[in-house]
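We close this part of the discussion by returning to an individual protein. The encoding preserves chain order, so positions in sequence and tokens coincide. The sequence in question and its structure tokens are set out directly beneath this paragraph:

===
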Amino acid sequence: MPCPTTKRGARIAIGAERAVAGEEGVFSAPVLLAPGETRLGVVVLSPGGSGAVYAWKVQLVRRQQGGDLVAPEGPELLGSFDAVSSAGGALVVGRTGPGLRVRVGGMPVSPGQDGLFAAMAPARDPSIEVLDGQGRSLVRSALPLAPAAGIRSAVGLAELEVSFLGHPGVLVTGRGAGAARARVGPVEVEAGVDLDERDRKAALVDLARPRDGLAAEHALVPERTLGASGDAAAADDRNPGRGRLWARAEGEGMRLDLGSARSGITGSELGRYDRELFGAKARGEGALGPLRLEASAFGATLREDARGNAPPAPAHDVLAAGGGAALWLAHGALVPGSEALRIEWRDPFTGRVVRQAALVRGQDYEIDWTNGRVVLAAPLASVGGRPSLATADPFQAPQASVVADYLYAVAGPAAEDLQGGRVGAAIGPLSLGGHAAREQRLDGSWRLVAGQAALDLGPLLRVRAEAARSDGSL
């Protein structure tokens, strides 16, 4: 639902929905409407901290033909306020209309004769509610507060062991690890360090390498894991490979990862490059007038880890669906968490991907890291959908296959360097993009260069062209 009078960058809450106003103050959010009148509560908070509470009535009329009629009325201002965010919540100071009451954080607030009020909204329930003189709720919505700046949490652990026996007489060993979460201006930062006495002789470049190169994710083994609560709880590890230094920084239109990351070049059909890596990845997007720009870059330099394991090798498998639910990848000894699976349906005449769907582990499939066995949640039919050409052959429908990108353990060269990136630009209906990637090992190298161009004029005309080239072998 558009609101053209909101300031650019304002935060909006419509019930449980959230939105941020873009250019010219326009925003949109999905809302559920019932036949007749629906009263929506809208809270708008500008970047400066000033806000307002509105009641917005929307009429929905069912029609037999031509679709339903939606008629929104003008928003009714119920009150204004100023909010100052802090780690424990927000201080709200404002004014309501005559005869109205206010609840902040679920607690009633008594406005003065002039409608002025002040209250503290706790972080656990940053809500504001406006009631009429009889105590009936007019609107209730969460305050769309920006997270407060500063350190959110920090934790550290250190251990030291001293031995006075044996040779060389006195032996000192120790380990220290720590992590912190903070907000620096508009950027959310999370970083950690994990060091021990063996790092005294390590090179500076070892900060960008993991101690365990065969762990990309904290993947639980069901047979060895106790049951956990089912209310969306999860076990997570930001540093599964025990990297000496890791960090995440994310702001509006940008993100930086140091540690475990994915190359994530998946926006094209030709020249996709999606693999797990331990190194650095940066991406950003923005607008320069009518021109929309995006770019990303990644890189890693891997060597033999502390356990003597060589860097894992990437694999790309395309497994044709046969009507069953069990599949076997070409390799075993997978790196837990490195896999990315999806289903593709390709037209048998043109070879184009007519539809695809990404799969989520634990919901759509289970995988055995040791032997590479994949079990889908439901059997996958070998064909599906309508063909591009009508024929009498029922098997000319788009053919289904499971595509898997993953890493697996190998015994071979103990060095790998990889780099890559993507750039893209769009203006109006025209968009251009290109990406490149390079993998270098002691026994060979591989390079990929690809480009895309698209023209989208809506239902009248859609044209897309792609080209890719790779050379070398690993």
About this structure: The chain has a mean pLDDT of 83. The chain is about 0% helix and 55% strand.
